[in-house]
């Protein structure tokens, strides 16, 4: 654990304020769900809650099925990171923090289907120099909240996204959203 040197007091309602610098660094906004843990030494640990993280094995299998079916790179994300990735080049994405642009697209519930020289492609992770040739992004909605996304990406001119790929990704996002509701 890293010491910050910041001390806060608990108010009369049992609340403590997480400093703005820490919230900004960890991308914690108003309404962000946090899990609370305690350890044997009496420490209290706050961790951002990821409902999709609970389905990580299932998400990995679904990403692999999408990739095998289409021959393209597929990713499943939550609001913070790529939970599962499959296909050629998936190691560049798996477990990495998602880009701010993708986080904004998820929050705005904005689905995208872009090819070739179309403008508006979104990098999936911050380290991604350029978005790939084509991409379909669909937010995962669970109980009315946007909790992540399903992404299909093509690397070459042969990998053109059409209605079939868009429908496939929408179906995957809808299915994962319903799984989270159960």
Provide keyphrases for this structure.
single chain; 182 residues; alpha+beta; five-stranded antiparallel β-sheet; two-stranded antiparallel ribbon; 4 helices; 26% helix; elongated
Architecture overview:
The chain has 182 residues and is α+β, with helices and mostly antiparallel strands. It has four helices and seven strands. The protein has a five-stranded antiparallel beta sheet, with helices on both faces. The longest helix has 19 residues, at 163-181. The chain is elongated and about 60 Å long. 32% of the residues are buried. The model has no long low-confidence stretch (mean pLDDT 87).
Map the helices and strands:
Elements: H1 20-25, E1 34-38, E2 44-48, H2 56-70, E3 73-77, E4 82-86, H3 100-107, E5 112-114, E6 134-142, E7 145-154, H4 163-181
Antiparallel strand pairs: 1-2, 3-4, 3-7, 5-6, 6-7
């Amino acid at each position: 654990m890293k010491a910050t040197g910041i001390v806060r007091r608990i108010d009369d309602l049992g609340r403590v304020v997480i400093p703005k610098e820490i919230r900004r660094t960890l991308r914690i906004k108003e309404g962000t769900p946090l899990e609370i843990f305690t350890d044997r030494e009496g420490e209290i640990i706050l961790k951002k809650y990821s409902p999709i993280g609970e389905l990580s094995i299932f998400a990995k299998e679904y990403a692999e099925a999408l990739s095998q079916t289409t021959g393209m790179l597929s990713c499943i994300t939550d609001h913070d990171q790529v939970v599962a990735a499959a296909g050629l080049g998936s190691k560049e994405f798996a477990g990495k923090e998602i880009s701010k642009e993708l986080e904004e697209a998820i929050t705005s519930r904005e689905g995208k289907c872009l090819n070739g020289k179309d403008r508006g492609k979104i990098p999936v992770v911050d380290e991604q120099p350029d978005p790939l040739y084509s991409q379909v992004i669909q937010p995962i909605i669970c109980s009315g909240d946007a909790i992540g996304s399903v992404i299909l990406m093509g690397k070459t001119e042969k990998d053109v996204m059409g209605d079939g790929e868009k429908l496939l990704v929408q179906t995957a996002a809808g299915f994962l959203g319903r799984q989270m509701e159960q």
